[in-house]
């Protein structure tokens, strides 16, 4: 007997659970690389980007918790351990002093990747409106960050 | 090449962008006429309506910002300049001292108009769930204001 | 002529109104039985469950107000009187000192029942996206509480 | 052996417990009918009465908790379930749009009834000063609300 | 030798001191009659006017303190005792239940009187810019209250 | 017919009303003379006494409002106008720069007088427990201030 | 001549002073043993009891100050020194790691003892209503804590 | 008869009213174009300018309300409707992605224009010190913003 | 070409700039000597004067920033470096333990000097109302501090 | 087997534990005598010293908790019971009305004693840097209080 | 040439940098496994442990940021990427529903390991007092958590 | 006899006092030059550096107070007067409009100088652990600022 009884059928639970697990991993990795560049950043725009990265980390931390708790609420075990996160497929920043311009270009690419995955997850969760609603909300928040990084990447 | 790369196809971007632009204009005009009557109101219920109009303005300002930033996030330029807003098609209040009863009837009509437009926009944005979700939230908030103005318009 | 003009067609208004009325009754009863056990609880886990029940009551009170005001906003009269609530069909706790273990098992069952009803209401409200969005949000919050009671019910 | 040992003699405990149980039921019903009219109110004074009813509900909720916890503290089980509350004997509002004037008259009557009962409870609890002190405080708060409804009922 | 050495010449100190003393008396009396009607008010608009009067009292109390401390700062003794205040020349409210309409008309008149006096004090203090600046600020605040009472006095 | 219906018999209402009216007058006068000396104080302990007087004024303002609203709640008209307050019988401070030591002695005497009157009012209100409870609370607060002034008056 | 003049007769002052001194000692000792077990607690319910003990300490510290200042206000010297407190007669916890179950049983007994003493003090202070009112309030707060410890002591 | 009685003579009222109406229009337009560029900004300094524009909007909104309410307080009807605002004469930003450097130069020019107009209004309002004082305060705030935009426009 | 374009003519800019520069230097030096005596104070009134000096420092720091930013806003470079401040002409406190009485007398003299200079600056800035308004506000704040030090200097 | 496993060797644990136990006792006693004199103080500086003693008590309570929890964290049982505290060796204040001057001299001596002991404990804990760091922080806070009492004790 | 110039010699920088890098990895992994068990926990103590784990995560996140920024400040690049963290050597929790008792035992072991490593890092950083001070503070915080988990692991 | 008795031997007091006096002077000068450039800054990064300089000033002001009060606490007179500060040896900024790039390079150099001095003071204060702990904390905070300025100085 399941420890946590799911309000969903087995099939829907499986598909929804995979979408949530994917989101958890992406959001944890986003919080780790956000902090990584927060620490190694250099260059003229240092302070502004340094602070903006803390906004990214705050978004990522808030939603990784919401997504993982939603997984538990439908009887699916989330996995947010480092060993799992390191296989996220998100390109990693180097362990070097990162110049502001490079950081901006890097995060434009990271968000392009994660937003595309999240949009697939919106489709995948159409049989559980509660989870879908949450994925939609997360996607909206990530696309807003994406816009800001792109706005900064525009040639002055 | 677009400055802000859209997560949407060109067609969906166009339709969604028009819906958001319409919402931005309606909400800015609502904030302007809300303040206008806030300043020119007179009559027995002055204080109560005076405060209620600031609630309307707060709602309108919060969502005009959210809607316009969503437009930017999907690569569409919002236009919230006075020259654009003055073509909103929303009936304008006179520049006279406005009695409370007239103000109530006026805002019942204004909300009837804007709510109908927002409901059309819910339909129009069905291909971008993120934007649709936002339009639904705005509509719910406007319908709540609509109810309150109607409740006040009832004959005592 | 209706006092509050509905933004919905008559048919949709009727179905949506019934879903909201059902939610209002369930949520009021949940707040009453939550307080009842908050007061009569005994046993080793007293303090922890005592506080958790206040979280349940806070959720139930917040959403009963939102749901009832949404009913009014679509021109439907909500009914939250004790005589109506006592026919909710939710099993009632005894007027006895309730041990923590019994309280946990009781609330697992209560949430199983209410969540199932709320999921039916998500289906029933598909023709008014604004209301459906609200029901989805409420369901998500109730399923999160459900998970927590189940987690506590697991045999140690 | 009693689960909660009473600091009072058996006789005093019984009389005091009945007074507290009566107060709990009255205050829960007051919070329910306060919300009911909060939702169904219409008319010129809508906003002002709408807000005032939330003040009534806040008072009723705060003191129902205090009174029920005092009952538990003297070893008496409070009963705040819907089935018990619906027998409170307090006249119920109709499920109709309620005009502001009718709402005012209705709550003047409701408070006349509850205040009279609370004054009897002050007498009944004279052998437990701690409970009596609490009943006095509740009565003072209810009489202040009573005054305000009466002040509003005066012919302009 | 003066206890508090004035930064002003004797003549300017005398004229400025009289203006401040007049303001102190008017503002204390305004706070007393504001509270008086706050307590004896009745009628349909009770709650709204009841709260508005506390705004008046807050303004009056804040500025009586500022004005009196300014008097002390220029070496002039303020006098805010009841015996002095009762000779303010401001018409007093009756000790009766005051209907909302009468209260509104009464405060329109009171503010007409006090605003006129304050405008004279602006002229009178032109030789001490620091005090004049304070009187101007007080006048602006009082004229804003005046507008609101007049707006409410307009026939609906 | 009375505008505000009293929950008390006519006799009790009369006696209780007089006690409350006396308290209102004493507390308003206390707030006025507290401010008066706050402004005219001089000497080594200036800052400490200056701040302590604002504590006195805060206490006096809070309780004059509570007492006057209680009077209204039992159908008695409070009178807090300057003309009434100036007959309080409380000795008035001079309009002179007041030295700290004189201020301390003066307030010891003022509190001796007011506390004695309040104790009489506890006796006088024994037939309305709600009012009595309020008078007791006010007396306790005033006696605490009294102790502090006496402690300061002790010869160093 | 007394440094602090008592508002009470000599007899009443003596009896009331003894009651307050007893309360001060009990409450200081309660705050010390509450902290002691807060530090030495072990076992499954550690965190929950650890936090609950800080609630006990907060109650005890707040009321020891109120009671001691009330003593001073009636001209009686409170004595809260360690040498006096150690003779309180309240059983002391051992200097050992205390298991949660033992802690619960221990505090049930401690509160049984202190509550009984406080009830005697209510009787003893009947000639000074201000002090009696304070003792009643403290007793109510302690009886609420007592109920919670008993609720936790119930066999699950 | 005027609805709102002016404390000013007819001539002064007319001149003062025109100055305030001009300020209202300029400040509303400033809030609209501030938001417009807040949404369409791109380039390296995006985040810093994005935030700074919200400071500009906050200043503009606060003072448009103060200026319009001052107009009402002297019996002059303010006009803040979109149709009126679009004739402000302030150059409008394009509906394009705006680069940070262009935004900075644009706002330097906008502030040069508005500050010059406000300085004319200081002269024009010299017969109503209360209004003049308000215009001076607004001018000071706008000149501070002007300095900051100029500082940013300096060649690095 | 000037980096920061002045809204003032060259003559007015020069005179106004000198007044602001003088104010900046006086206020920085006031903040330094305020802290100096805050640290070296001794004697019976230690705590009270110690705290009061932090109020002086807070005032001085707030206005030195406002005055210097106003200078920049009119295109004048403020100079607040230690080498400039040490030529302020304000008498310096000794590096010794300073007794409370000496501190009081010292600050009475310091404020007499600075207030006189600020009054001259009010005259000097009459051609730029914005700056003059700021200088007036600073003067008022300093004269209030001056009064308090004088009040404390009065012989007890 | 130890309930709480120490991160320290047995020798270091013993020495460190004794230092922490000594600090706990000193700080509890300091909080008790601080309150004792807070209650029995009289004289001209009453309010200032009364408040300063609450600062002392706050410091003492914060660090007694930190020190005792550190003891538990290294596996040592702290003992903060009244019977243990009364043997602290710190001279006790009399149960008399204490004049401000005597209080100041008394606390200068108390702090001289406790600071000396704390400095010994810094030496004693050099083999556990974590505890030593805590003792150093406590000593710094106590020496700051010591300075203030000495400053007040200086002859004016 | 180094981008960030170190205040330390090359040798000290190397050793200190390794200690900080180790701390960063341990603290990130602690935050990940803390969240992991926060999500998969079940059993009687669910709520209490669920909350306690968020305290652990908060501590771990705060100090990983402080430690990494300290590394950057001494010119050493921290590495907090998932691939690096997964080699931390800290035993990982299973992806299963974790019972409360197992969670407690697990975290006792995790803290035993991390505390031992941190104590080595205190030794290793003795040549940079600033870093050592930070490591000592982190160790103290972790040892406090360690105590709490051990206290909960004690057999009841 | 010393006014403030030192807890240190004469030798240690002298050396420690010199270190603290040096820190006080450096930190006051840092706060003055931080403000100076805050006011005269120009260029593309204006707003970001303008805000960062206020962070520097906040750090400098907090620690100058802590260091000076520590000096007083060990019986040493701090000297923070302008005449003393202007001999700090820290290079001064010009009284010119300062471009952002120059400001960044300037503060990198200033922090290099001050950090080196603070590291010497850590060595110098090793015989008073309390002061040394404070100097270490200040150094850590300054080195964090140093890193940020260096990061910004890196070529993009």
UniProtKB/TrEMBL annotation, chains A, B, C, D, E, F, G, H, I, J, K, L:
CDD domains: DPS. GO terms for molecular function: ferric iron binding. InterPro entries: DPS_DNA-bd (IPR002177), Ferritin-like (IPR012347), Ferritin-like_SF (IPR009078), Ferritin_DPS_dom (IPR008331). Residues 18-151 form the Ferritin/DPS domain. Pfam families: Ferritin. Belongs to the Dps family. This is Ferritin. It comes from Modestobacter caceresii. The lineage of its organism: Bacteria, Bacillati, Actinomycetota, Actinomycetes, Geodermatophilales.
């Amino acid at each position: 007997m399941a420890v946590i009884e799911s309000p969903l059928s087995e099939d829907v639970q499986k598909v929804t659970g995979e979408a949530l697990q994917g989101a958890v991993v992406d959001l944890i990795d986003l919080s780790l690389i956000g902090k990584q560049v927060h620490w190694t950043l250099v260059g003229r725009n240092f302070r502004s980007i340094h602070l903006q990265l803390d906004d990214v980390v705050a978004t990522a931390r808030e939603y990784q918790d919401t997504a993982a708790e939603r997984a538990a609420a439908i009887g699916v075990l989330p996995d947010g351990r480092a060993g799992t996160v390191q296989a996220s497929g998100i390109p990693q920043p180097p362990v070097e002093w990162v110049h502001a311009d490079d950081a901006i270009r890097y995060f434009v690419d990271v968000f392009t990747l994660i937003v595309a995955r999240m949009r697939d997850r919106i489709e995948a969760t159409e049989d559980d409106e509660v989870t879908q609603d949450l994925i939609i909300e997360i996607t909206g928040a990530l696309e807003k960050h994406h816009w800001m990084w792109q706005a900064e990447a525009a040639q002055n």
